[in-house]
Design a protein that fits this description.
Elements: E1 2-6, E2 13-14, H1 18-31, H2 47-57, H3 64-81, E3 88-89, H4 93-101, E4 106-111, H5 116-125, E5 135-136, H6 144-159, E6 168-172, H7 175-183, E7 187-191, H8 198-202, E8 208-210, H9 216-224
Parallel strand pairs: 1-4, 1-6, 4-5, 6-7, 7-8
Antiparallel strand pairs: 2-3
Bound molecules: magnesium ion.
Length: about 220
Amino acid sequence: MKVCLFDIDGTLINTGKAGKDAMVAAFLQAAELTQIEHDLHLSGKTDRGIFGELFEQHGKSVSEENWQHFIDLYLAGLEKNLPLRQGTVLPGVTPLLAQLSERDDVLLGLLTGNVARGAELKLTHYGINHYFSFGGFGDVHAHRNNVAQAALEAALTHHGQAISPRDVYVIGDTPNDIICAQAIGAQSIAVATGVFSVEQLRQHSPDLLVSDLADLKSISSFILN
Ligand SMILES: [Mg+2]
């Protein structure tokens, strides 16, 4: 059995900043501030990690209560923003998911820094949520390597049988996606449709590197070898 674990932002979809803007607004409201003091870089991070970074940098308590308040505001803002932004499903994504989902020797899951509800809102808005039945999410873990471990465990639970980590493929658009694949012994497919270029991603030695997911033939032959 092969398992494909997909990142969301910059890999499957681009939300036209619906997520980032909702996150900044949620932070400012929850922290009772009017502006953000540091540049906010979200790529490859988890929602829990971003929360910790933001609150700590601004001298605010990284408490469970603040987390809950922040994430409730974020999810409400995200749901409102999604239909208002010019986002898109990235090239090749829909045909690749359609092709892989037809196979009975491939499982499709998520490995994302989004909280589970945020992932569901985004993917439902773009019409591709039904392809995924399990995943690792950013609700609990600040570090992506822990999310990768959780995604692998979710795949095992879903499948109900052993899966070799070498049969697991992590598809993502940032160095952190490549690093977390390596951390669980999985193979990485890096795609340059986010903020990182092919050259930047190459430095982290992914097992396969593509400019986008439109080259169905090389991606599926790499996965199905
Ligand atoms: Mg991403």
